[in-house]
Amino acid sequence: MTRFATRGGSLRIRNGLVFDGTSETLEARDVLIRDGIIVDEQTVGSGSRDVPTLDAKGGMVTPGFIDAHLHAYALSLTLLTNETRLLSYVALVAKQRLGRTLHRGFTTVRDVAGGDAGLHRGIEEGLIESPRYYYTGAALSQTGGHGDPTAADDTLCFHSGPGLEIVDGVEALRLAVRTRMHGGAHAIKIMASGGVTSPADPLKIPQYSLEEIQVVAEEAGRRGSYVAAHAYSPDSIQHALRGGVRSIEHGNLLDPPTAEAMREAGAYLVPTLVTYDAMSRHGRSLGMTEVGLSKNAEVLEQGKHAIELAKNSGVPVGFGSDLMGDLEGEQLQGLRLQSDVTGVLELLRSLTSVNAALLREERLGRIGAGAFGDVLIFDGNPLETPELLWSQRRPRVVLDGVPITASASQ
């Protein structure tokens, strides 16, 4: 959990209609933040009068949004480029990406293929303007899996980079998980099926053996953590669930029996609709291969159907963006696309309370006593005017009780 050393502000937000993270009923009330934490005004007495105020002017006040599938280190749409640049440069790119993400209204992100204790420390110390930052470290891939950036005819021997590491075998995976936990990782990311941008793996075939996935889940679980799995097809999703995976990333090809299996396992779906939409429009000009474009076309239209199946089966549905390289600026369009499927209220829940439950952090994703002072203030009511959620005119952002200065570049 990110603990900002230089923030912890106090603030009163007046005249707002408060969405608490779950309820469809908005409440007209003040929100009081003390030392970075939302408090019940009745418990703090007269001392609540001496804090700065912001006037919401009748607009909606929501918890800060959470992007549960972000890649701060993703320089481009080419995996090999992302994994072979010096980490000093990669970190500078991440700094900019994280800052822009915060200004869009995402006050927490989960980086599911990258991040490390050094970047996290820089965020906590205020060296980097960033949302609260959860990270998995480099995602784990089998040889020839989605995290293997080499083509079949490459002579390059790739082992690891900032966002991906090839690890085969039960004992090697056990050590890899322990290393990540020692390095402060929030969760473990594995590649459990083929992917769009990887050059040599079929999209639908399950990756990693059951024994390999089980040892990853066992080691993570013993540390109070969990496994997030990149997976598209029913076979790969069910294989991952049998291994103990808790978070299914993407899941575009989900079918009804597999959605039911997810519900029974208590798993979450983190859809990433916008990345496929953005790649279909811009991928060719940004250097995607014909293989990648073909794979993208295969999953593009199925993502919305997967969300509908998950919701109908009682599977909690979060929100993720998964944007790489120059597609990062499409992040807000992900809100529009998911809203088209679920409606605005369910989207707001996905962005706040559902993603907070996925992260196992009760201080996120809600407006109530004891929650972090991470708040958005919209000029109107997105339940009535949904376009406010993805408009380039962003809400006012409060992180840890401190207003974020507006940025012209979002």
From TrEMBL:
This is Imidazolonepropionase-like amidohydrolase. It comes from Pseudoclavibacter helvolus. InterPro entries: Amidohydro-rel, Metal-dep_hydrolase_composite, Metal_Hydrolase, Metallo-dep_Hydrolase, OTAase-like. PANTHER family: ALPHA-D-RIBOSE 1-METHYLPHOSPHONATE 5-TRIPHOSPHATE DIPHOSPHATASE. It comes from the Bacteria. GO terms for molecular function: hydrolase activity, acting on carbon-nitrogen (but not peptide) bonds. CDD domains: Met_dep_hydrolase_A. Residues 60-398 form the Amidohydrolase-related domain. Keywords: Hydrolase.
